[in-house]
Amino acid sequence: MFDRPGNITAQLEKIANGGGPASAEERAAARQKLITSGKPPETITLSDEPTPDERFKKLKSFYMTQLMDSSSSSASTDLSSAYGYGSPGALSRIMGLYSGVTGYGNKKTKTKSAPMREALTQSEGLKLLGREENTIEKMKSVQWNGMTSLSQRGEQKYPVRFLSNYIPTMALRQLQPTTLLDYNALPPLRPIQLLLTLHNPLFDPIRITLATPSHTPGRIASKVTILCPEFEIGANTDVWDEALSAGGKEKRRTKAESSEGQAEAGKIWEKGRNWTTVVLEVVPASLDPTPMLPIQKEGSKEALNPANAAAALEEDDDVLEIPLFVRAEYETDATADGGDAGGGVAGAEKEKEKRELAYWCVLGVGRIAHSGTPVPS
Amino acid sequence: MAATTQTHRSASSLRAASLQAQSLTGSGSPHTPKRAASTASAFSSPAGTRDNDESMIFEFGSRFFRAGFSNESTPRCVLGYGPEEQRRAGDYRRWTHGYENNWRKRKRGKDWDEAYELWKMDLRDVDLGLVGDRIERVVRNAYHKYLLHALPRKLILILPPAFPHPLLSTLLTSLFTNFQLPLITLMSSPVLSTIASGLRSALVVDIGWHETIISGVFELRELLHYRTDRAGKMLSREMGKLLARESMKSQEWHEAKDAVADDDENLSDKVSFEETQEVLARVAWCRNYNEALCLRSAPHQESSEETFADAPEQLESSSITEGDNEGAPPASNRNDPTIVVPLQSTSPPATVRLPMSRFAEPCETTLFDTSTAVDGDWDDNEVPIHHLVYNALSSLPRDVRGICMARIIVTGGVSNIPGVKNRVVDEVAALFTERGWEKVRGKAAEQRKKKLEEINHNFQSPPGPAEAQKTREYPHDDPSVPLHTSSPALEDPEPDPIDEKLRRENPQAAKPPVHGIVRGVETLGAWAGGALIGNLKVKGIAQIEQDKFLQHGLAGASKEGDVGVATQRFSAGPGAPRGTSAGERSSWTLGVFG
């Protein structure tokens, strides 16, 4: 879809315009052509009203010319302009200093810069307030569905999303596959062991340090323990490399075998080429409102309604989410992406550079079961 | 002459070259600096990349955030701060069944509309840490979804005038710490609105969310600010109340109808904020001056619609009259067709059928309602907009007023409602023709005027210009000075020989500026003004560097007088003053925000 990786917006615009750039000037030219061609006015579909884009361009050129006129500096790209010799006034003053000829003084008054003025005509971008009755009449003729909705207004430009490719991806799943866990109704006050798998997208091995508060923030505070918060993840090497080199020496997966099916603190659970799994223990808190809820509103409708037993809980209070701080350390070639760290020094290409990436993220586990509702098996 | 110029030019280029060499060798290594944005712009080298000329433009309002680049006419994105925008990636509940009906459970703030605004005017209850996080969130969202390409490192930040310092500090801290911006330039929105309309002086009426700010701008300097609460928030609430009341009625829910009070707690349970915004965006409109005048002079026709929100007893009577109307369906004629609005968020969902004219009421009551107080006797923050515009104009200096009254710019979110801009300008024009710029009004003033007219033939010499102005501006200070009965504002000004000479010398500005009439001008908005400024490479007054701000915070700012003010002038051409002015500033200022 895209020819180049950069300048996505221009490329998108090109696609949107059916291949060619539709600038304001071109539209204006097309309009002028329509008008001068002498066609009957019904066929002219382009309105005479300049679009905001066109007005912006006009204003821009107006201010540019005003700046040119007032500063009289011939070219902004001229190096000398950066030192204040660009304007003839300053130049003649300095020449006056050197030569001692008084004539330069008079010159100065002649070339004195004109004050900037405001835009006076429509061609300069000025637009007087027009009448809005036509719009209101039009509103009367179309119904509710004929008018632009807020979402329509908001979605005029389609966002393009690029995923960052240097953040380890994470996955969370249940440790014991025997008892099927309903993530939408996690049993409260019962420890759940989960497997957290991190995949390394980089071509260098990374060291990961995880941290989390022992209780999740918010009103419903569940207990969280990471059994092994520090570990390493292998590099994202070629799959063939692993298959060939690792061969007989190492098993493809190393698993904490000593503890069959039992998580052990301080040890990773499983490890592969570019991924590592650790165990996370969570004790979901109870949603039982008695200890932590504030006093319910007297006589409010929700309180009276028996169907809404947990109405005082706000939406998403029952969601179990774990804030997690991830710190990744790795060593990479200093010139690998040559930008931020002042790279590009010749002769230092082989140098390894330590880099660090640290961020907060959130793991969504599921919803805690309401105490009233039976957990479906 | 030519020869000397030639030699000089070569001398200057030599100097340039040596300077360049010096700065390059000064860093210690002989390589070309890769991303030295500051030096590149200082030399304004033609080989500089496009990114150096460009800057990012951010505009923070209390409801929406706009972000984009200076070479584009519209922002790349306009993002709200509402709970929907704050959802995590992959949270698709918005599209699940029955989502609209659950909004009551979803209340995030205390108030109906609190979750949708970035800050409140009362900063005592505002959690500034949360505001900072929300700013980070919205800017990150803009970065990753909309501002895709290599980002320019200069940022122009557009803020409403007199932005509260705690918020400003939070905002700058959030931007500087999270986004590695080396330099932020602060700009005030009314000045930029003026620029975006092609003018240099204007009276900017910004009908925003929390308040309407009326600013007098003269030669791109802000002179005064007048504020009133009558703005988008009040309008939204009025519309919400209207919808709540009508949806109740359409349910035939008579026992509940009595319970519909006008307080906001009740409103928050009836109609969701989103739907009210939708209705405002789609069908709200504003009567023009003549229609409103007809209604005002003949209030009995639509009394039930006009007085619905004022007082409980009035509400009662109005509900009775409306109850009488209820039997007959609202007449649907071509001038006032019935609009059918489907509401999802009421319980149960309702369809409101209202004549088009009813959707003009919220504008009428919130923005232009003069019935709540005797003339000129409003609370400080609830003056109707047109009166406030008039007050602002009459408190401007005379020359400035003449220029500004012919350049009234109505902007802000609410001004997009069809009819609002025209109405503001027309109402001000009407006030002006009614009163002139006479400040003293009322019975006593009338009597005194009459008395003076009687003795008018007694005084001999007409007062000189200075005296005349004095009597006009401060008549109560010196009662012995006789009043001019004909307003000097309406007279033709004396021809000014200096002005004429200037005009002769500069034929381009031959046309005298339009002044003395009430006239409205369209603007492209403050954001576009910021983009225009960003294009022109004008150095701002309030330029804040990252390290300096992070060292001292706002307390590090010096007073405006300490830093050269002349740099903001437009006479400073592209690149011209950089070498001669102080160069790198040691101190910085908040400019008009200080």
Describe the structure in brief:
With about 375 residues, chain A is an alpha+beta fold. Chain A has nine helices and ten strands.
Structure explained in plain terms:
Chain A: It comes from Trichoglossum hirsutum. Chain A: This is Dynactin subunit 4. The complex is a heterodimer of chains A (about 375) and B (about 600). Chain A has about 375 residues and is of the alpha+beta class. Chain A has two domains: about 130 residues, no CATH class; about 180 residues, no CATH class. In chain A, strands 1, 2, 4, 6, 7 and 8 form a six-stranded antiparallel beta sheet that branches. A four-stranded antiparallel beta sheet of chain A has the order 5-3-9-10, with no helix packed on it. In chain A, strand 7 and strand 8 form a beta hairpin. In chain A, helix 4 runs antiparallel to helix 5. The radius of gyration of chain A is 34 Å and the shape is extended. With about 600 residues, chain B is an alpha/beta fold. Chain B folds into four domains: about 180 residues, ATPase, nucleotide binding domain (Nucleotidyltransferase, domain 5), CATH 3.30.420; about 90 residues, 2-Layer Sandwich (Nucleotidyltransferase, domain 5); about 130 residues, no CATH class; about 60 residues, no CATH class. Chain B contains 22 helices and 13 strands. In chain B, helix 5 links the parallel strand 4 and strand 5. In chain B, about 40% of the residues lie in helices and about 10% in strands. Chain B is globular. At the A-B interface, helix 3, helix 4, helix 6 and helix 7 of A face helix 1, helix 10, strand 9, helix 17 and strand 12 of B.
Number of strands of chain A: 10
Main beta-sheet annotation of chain A: 6 strands, antiparallel
- What is the CA-CA span between the terminal residues of chain B? 48 Å
How many strands appear in the DSSP assignment of chain B?
13
Q: What series of H and E elements makes up the topology of chain A?
A: HHHHHHHEEEEEHEEEHEE
Helix content of chain B: 25-40%
- Domain count of chain B: 4
Region (Disordered) (chain A): 1-52
Keywords (chain A): Acetylation, Coiled coil, Cytoplasm, Cytoskeleton, Isopeptide bond, Phosphoprotein, Ubl conjugation
Subcellular location (chain A): Cytoplasm, Cytoskeleton, Microtubule organizing center, Centrosome; Cytoplasm, Cytoskeleton, Stress fiber; Cytoplasm, Myofibril
InterPro entries (chain A): DCTN4
